[in-house]
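Reviewer 2 asked us to include a model.

Predict the structure of this chain.
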Amino acid sequence: MMESNAEMKHDVLGKWGEAYALQYLLGKGYSLRARNYKFNRMEIDLIMSNGKNLVMVEVKTRHSAELGEPWRAVNFAKQKQIIRVANYYTKAIEWPHEVRFDVVSIVHNSNHTDLTHIIDAFSPKP
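Predicted model (structure tokens):
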């Protein structure tokens, strides 16, 4: 674990959460293809592959779920951004298979760390 919450700033917590989520996914057999992939000032936290699936992963980390679970921050506008970046990435690498959008939601504080992996959390609208 890292330092106590009082000392952990928001951006540090976010980077810690991404690293924690990455280790979790690697442990589940996923492979890392890209981290913090940017396109037009938008970003996808983790791009993983799992079998023939390319998995776009948004990681949300909070100290507490008091104001709602972290995954709730992945609203429709954020989903649209992620889908835009994913479209660019998949065209650039000419990905021939399925693309999936997951969210990893983490609540981390000095008492515990809870990770929720939401598989197929959202999909591009036709």
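The chain has one domain: 5-122. The chain has two helices and five strands. We have added this to the supplementary material.
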